[in-house]
């Protein structure tokens, strides 16, 4: 069995980071966590991440925009997207800026997205309070706020 070159000598944090970034975007915090698992020193990881950011190979802003687009496609609301980005180590100010920019440029209409998600799952707004509450919980679990949920339920009821 041939020996891989990586097994002969320890790889650098930069090589490992580039290998990870070749597959998908990562936030700085995610990348730091992944590199620390590979026994790189914290100083080497910080230096590497600074160099990658300076070279434009890693960007939290680009990661957040890409993440936002993918989650909107999956039908997730702003609250869930915000929480997930925070969990992945993206700064709150950057998250707010990315969400605001998406709304301003009409990339996403959260009210309409909530309606579409609800319509795909349910054909009616629900006849009983119990059914209506079930639909509300569904949208809330997807990360939509009360106003967006109310809008979606009203529009679904008006479509009948």
Automatic annotation (TrEMBL):
Highest taxon of the lineage: Bacteria
GO terms (BP aspect): regulation of DNA repair
Keyword presence, Nucleus: no
Domain called RecX first three-helical: residue spans: 14-50
Localization terms from the record: Cytoplasm
GO-annotated cellular components: cytoplasm
Keyword Glycosyltransferase: no
RecX third three-helical domain span: 107-153
Residue ranges of every copy of the RecX second three-helical domain listed in the record: 59-99
Keyword annotations from UniProtKB, A to Z: Cytoplasm
Task of the protein: Modulates RecA activity.
Membership in a protein family: Belongs to the RecX family.
Name used for this protein in its record: Regulatory protein RecX
Source species of the chain: Billgrantia tianxiuensis
Taxonomic classification: Bacteria, Pseudomonadati, Pseudomonadota, Gammaproteobacteria, Oceanospirillales
């Amino acid at each position: 069995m041939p020996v891989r070159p990586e097994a002969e000598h320890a790889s650098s944090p930069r090589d490992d980071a580039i290998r990870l970034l070749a597959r998908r975007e990562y936030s700085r915090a995610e990348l730091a966590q992944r590199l620390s698992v590979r026994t790189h020193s914290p100083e080497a990881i910080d230096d590497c991440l600074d160099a990658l950011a300076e070279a434009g190979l890693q960007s939290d802003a680009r990661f957040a925009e890409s993440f936002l687009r993918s989650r909107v496609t999956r039908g997730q609301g702003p609250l869930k997207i915000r929480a997930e980005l925070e969990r992945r180590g993206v700064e709150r100010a950057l998250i707010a800026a990315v969400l605001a920019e998406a709304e301003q440029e009409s990339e996403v209409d959260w009210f309409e997205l909530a309606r579409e998600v609800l319509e795909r799952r349910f054909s009616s707004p629900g006849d009983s309070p119990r059914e209506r509450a079930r639909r509300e919980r569904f949208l809330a679990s997807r990360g939509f706020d009360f106003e967006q949920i109310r809008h979606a339920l009203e529009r679904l009821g008006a479509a009948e």
